[in-house]
Amino acid sequence: MTIGSLQKSLADFAAERDWEQFHTPKNLAMALAGESGELLEIFQWLTPDQSSAVMDDPVRAPQVREEMADVFAYLLRLADVLDLDLEQALVEKIETNHRKYPAHLARGRADKYTQLGG
């Protein structure tokens, strides 16, 4: 499947239920934040090692999968409603990050680009 075909499936799903009226950018952004919070909740009290192994946990793995799908669905739907080319936006963001975080300055560091010097 492609991003476009996934967006069409989501748009068709919403249209079949007359939900477009609720799929305003504000509502979709809020739903995206809510679902991101639900994903975050799964990881909230895990140790770093537990979080790295979360997909090996038979209880948490399906929860992570479902919440990530929800986040992705709302992100795709929001991009569609805003007529935003999400793939192009990501390509541009990757290029921007290449400039902000040159490998020779950022390698092995978690600092914000403003703290890298150079």
SSE blueprint:
Layout: H1 3-16, H2 25-43, H3 48-52, H4 60-81, H5 86-100, H6 103-106
Helix pairs in contact: 1-4, 2-4
Summarize it:
The protein is 67% helix and 0% strand.
Number of strands: 0
Residue share in helix: 55-70%
Poorly predicted tracts of residues? none
Number of helices: 6
What does the average pLDDT come to? 97
How far do the termini sit from each other? 42 Å
CATH class of the domain at 3-84: Mainly Alpha
Indicate the CATH topology of the domain at 3-84. Helix Hairpins
The shape is globular
Determine the structural class based on helices, strands and strand pairing.
mainly alpha
Strand and helix order: HHHHHH
Largest sheet: none
Strand content: under 5%
Output the CATH homologous superfamily of the domain at 3-84: MazG-like
CATH architecture of the domain at 3-84: Orthogonal Bundle
Taking all Cα atoms into account, the compactness measure Rg is: 18 Å
GO molecular function: nucleoside triphosphate diphosphatase activity
Keywords: Hydrolase
InterPro entries: dCTP_Pyrophosphatase, DCTPP
Protein name: Nucleotide pyrophosphohydrolase
